[in-house]
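Holo model, coenzyme A. Inputs:
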Amino acid sequence: MRAAGRQALLAQLQPRAARCRLVRTRPVWFRPIRPDDERLLRDLFYSHSAETVYQRYHAPLKSLPAAKLQELCTLDYDDRMALAGFIGEPGEERMIAVGRYSRERAGTLADVALIVHDDFQGRGIGTRLLARLIEIARNAGVGGFTGYVLAGNSRMLNLFLKCGFPMESDLKDGVHAVTVRFKERGPVRNA
Ligand SMILES: CC(C)(COP(=O)(O)OP(=O)(O)OC[C@H]1O[C@@H](n2cnc3c(N)ncnc32)[C@H](O)[C@@H]1OP(=O)(O)O)[C@@H](O)C(=O)NCCC(=O)NCCS
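Output:
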């Protein structure tokens, strides 16, 4: 991505409060992950339940090596993007959710995955995170998302179903391969 394009993209990615169901008690705000977020991401990973980790990674991951954490925090904000949700004041924030997408190259669909800390699930944060990621991805020219969702994960399937774009899904070996194409605009729910 050209420098000017990247600047414009980063400008529109400034932290923004979100109208989550949580907002009245503890506002949740979002910004892209930065290289210095390694500690916050590590704290988030090690505070998830085993079930949440399994639903996200499709494996009972027990640890995230430092090199992997660094890689997850080092993005080009074009083909590889991650948006995190936080509570607390900037400088003292706690990361409570992450949504990320990556694509092989321009013109391909991007793989997307989300995770919300157990204590904050079911309060609209995933819905808001996916909506923001779609907004960012569309501005970056991504044509759609693919996601892999374990059978029975109706909360994530619901999120895709209601994201405002038609969803296709193919269930194989206990995993739904979900595709959402942005071109065919459906009724917008999360604007
Ligand atoms: C899946 C996940 C990201 C969703 O985030 P969330 O913040 O919990 O989701 P939301 O609160 O925005 O709710 C999503 C929808 O599921 C619905 N929902 C809530 N609980 C549900 C349940 N137990 N069963 C089915 N649907 C449910 C909600 O009603 C909501 O629909 P609505 O907007 O019409 O009310 C989050 O639960 C999570 O991190 N799960 C573990 C990791 C995971 O599964 N990642 C997906 C990998 S692709």
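Confidence is low (pLDDT under 50) at residues 186-191. The two ends are 26 Å apart (CA to CA).
Archived with the compound record.
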